[in-house]
Specification:
Length: 141
C-alpha cells in the first residue's frame, strides 16, 4: 500500500513539474525583457546627455527587437505581445519607429508595452519633456 501511495505521489509530481517549469520560464522571460528594455531606455538618455548628440532607440515591432545605436539588438521573447507608441516624426516604416533622446535630457516621448499571454503586463513610458523612464502596470482588457 505504501508503495502505491509513493508511486501516486511521484506520478503527480511528474505531471505538475513541467507546468510549473513553463510558468517559471515565462515569468523569467517577461521580467528579463522588462528589465532589459528599461535599461536600454535609460542608457540611451544617459548616452545622449554625455555625448552631446541625440540617441535613437529603434523599435521594430515586426522583427520584435529594440536597438540602440551600434549595440546588439534586444530581442523580445515570442510569448510576449509588444505594443509601442512614438512620435510621428520618428516612425520610419510600418511598425518601425524610435524614441529619440536629446542632450538636454528631453526626448520625443513614447511608450513600449510588454504584455504577457494572460493579458497583464508592463508599459515603459518615456516622458517627452524630461526624458524620464517610468513603469506602469497594464491590466488585462
Amino acid at each position: 500500500m505504501e508503495l502505491l501511495v509513493a508511486l501516486a505521489v511521484m506520478g503527480l509530481m511528474v505531471a505538475l513539474v513541467p507546468m510549473a517549469y513553463d510558468r517559471l520560464r515565462e515569468t523569467t522571460d517577461y521580467q528579463g525583457a522588462v528589465r532589459a528594455l528599461a535599461t536600454e531606455m535609460r542608457l540611451a538618455r544617459n548616452l545622449a546627455m554625455q555625448s552631446g548628440q541625440s540617441q535613437a532607440l529603434t523599435i521594430d515591432l515586426h522583427q520584435r527587437h529594440i536597438q540602440l545605436a551600434d549595440r546588439q539588438p534586444l530581442s523580445i521573447p515570442r510569448r510576449l505581445q509588444v505594443e509601442a507608441e512614438f512620435a510621428r516624426i520618428e516612425q520610419t516604416a510600418d511598425r518601425v519607429g524610435a524614441i529619440r533622446f536629446y542632450p538636454d535630457g528631453s526626448s520625443t516621448g513614447g511608450s513600449v508595452s510588454l504584455i504577457r499571454p494572460a493579458g497583464n503586463g508592463t508599459r515603459l513610458r518615456v516622458d517627452w519633456l524630461l526624458g524620464r523612464v517610468t513603469q506602469e502596470p497594464v491590466a488585462p482588457s
